[in-house]
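Retro notes
What went well: the complex prediction finally ran end to end.
Inputs used:
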Amino acid sequence: MARAWHLKSRPNGMPTSENFELKDLELPSLSEGQVRVRNLWLSVDPYMRGRMNDVKSYVPPFQVGEPLEGGAIGEIVESKADGLQPGELVQHMSGWRDEAVLDNAGANKLPDLGVPKEQFLGVLGVTGITAYFGLLDAAQAKPGDIVFVSAAAGAVGSVVVQVAKAKGMTVIASAGGAEKCDWVRSLGADQVIDYKAGPILKGLAEGAPKGIDVYFDNVGGDHLDAALAVARNNARFAICGMIEGYNDPTPASFRFIQRIIAARITIKGFIVLDYFPRLGEFYSEMAPCIASGAVKSRETVVEGLEKTPDAFLGLFKGENTGKMLVKL
Amino acid sequence: MARAWHLKSRPNGMPTSENFELKDLELPSLSEGQVRVRNLWLSVDPYMRGRMNDVKSYVPPFQVGEPLEGGAIGEIVESKADGLQPGELVQHMSGWRDEAVLDNAGANKLPDLGVPKEQFLGVLGVTGITAYFGLLDAAQAKPGDIVFVSAAAGAVGSVVVQVAKAKGMTVIASAGGAEKCDWVRSLGADQVIDYKAGPILKGLAEGAPKGIDVYFDNVGGDHLDAALAVARNNARFAICGMIEGYNDPTPASFRFIQRIIAARITIKGFIVLDYFPRLGEFYSEMAPCIASGAVKSRETVVEGLEKTPDAFLGLFKGENTGKMLVKL
């Protein structure tokens, strides 16, 4: 019998382990075109918090009493699908569980790029795709730009830092605590601001005395306000996430919102799904960067299906450096 | 002796008549390349409030004790400049005074488009240029779009309504009070929301049940937040002004800022100066619209140089319908 984490109740503010329940899940026998997979790695991501609210968005909300979903890598253990063989590894969206039945269309065979398979949930997966297209397309970042990246020790932020450096940009990064800051510095960031050591506006004004051309936002709130304050003319902001607001119903307030006008700032929200048609471009650019060591991958690994909610909750406490993963 | 309004002190919050002083201004005799003009019409605009703060922006701040500046139309009374003759009308930036000495480069002869001269401070001037390029370029509004325009009874907003209708868009407009709303309806707006009659979010949700593709922002604050709430996927916001915040130091707060991500909203601030190289395009599109009556001009006229600060202060009390002008 498979086991899956279910949404027991909708979180109100910060989620707790009480919102989740691990239950048996009866899987059907395979129909034509389906495979059964045993999951090896599960992804937990901040965006999942949004799906726990009963709000229409770009993906439907999770339903109370139903299994949760998310990125995962599994091994095929049984197949009635053409072109998919037992033993092959696939990436899919039926995470938060140990076993799943997938339609052929939802099971994506991992390309053979010679990297550890879990990286397809990180730097070569949705995380990397988000960082790559958010920086280069949504924010239109160009060589020579001064780029500010928040949550730079996180999964997406740490890839943004490295892609920006590989493309000849100056990188100002923020992270929480000395250890994370050291790691971000080791990735090549030119200036690293410890946002826990003082107001981010002060840190950013000192770290980027010439201002910024690009802001890659993973945080929102005070970070976004500080970026507005120091933006140069024609600055571009790519809004990837606003983790500061996911569990806090207080409206975000902005002292520097009017600078949008005088500095001609463009702020653009984006969703990684919109870039899936350009995956070929992503693999051909990123795989060599990873092979050469120009872009490094780092994971924070939690072991065991039982720990999946803990891994997820840890995202909001800054417990991960790099990509947070669950290993089954 | 010329007379000019000077900045007596910097306003703290809402400006008052105490911040302004009408004083004699000794003008130099003409050098080669200069003209002397007698001003006939002065423009007062919300953006001038920003220049009264001691803050670096896209134009330098006004200085305490110095004359104020702004758009004006004057008649040449003396000329040492090639191609500029006494009796000719010019548009220039030495407003807030009755007489001025201008360099040739700062005196722009009015093109002969067969419209009343004061319209070159409104629908055919900076006001119209702002509306036209803000809507069609900054917001990339297209035929068929649902466009929300705030302060639609104001100078810029009323032109946006008319250009949007002329281009085949659906227009949702907001204005303050029944009389202004009636006028905006007469300009062709499909739905008009009286923001003084209830929360703008409620009005907008009812007035635009299918959401909005474009928001032309003259107000900021709650209007901007409501637009975020109802924006459809890939909506574009052009931020022209945020009059709600010009006199209020309270940081603007936003309940719906996170929708930038899920709805892939693009928010773009713009400055009309950046579009001056495209004035030819503007005149060739707008002059026929005005001649045909597709775009109408309306002015609120205050008479006498002495009343210039009153006209300016009236902008923040909603005293103008259409463009606020001072006639000398």
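What we learned: The longest helix of chain B spans residues 279-292.
What to try next: split runs per interface for comparison.
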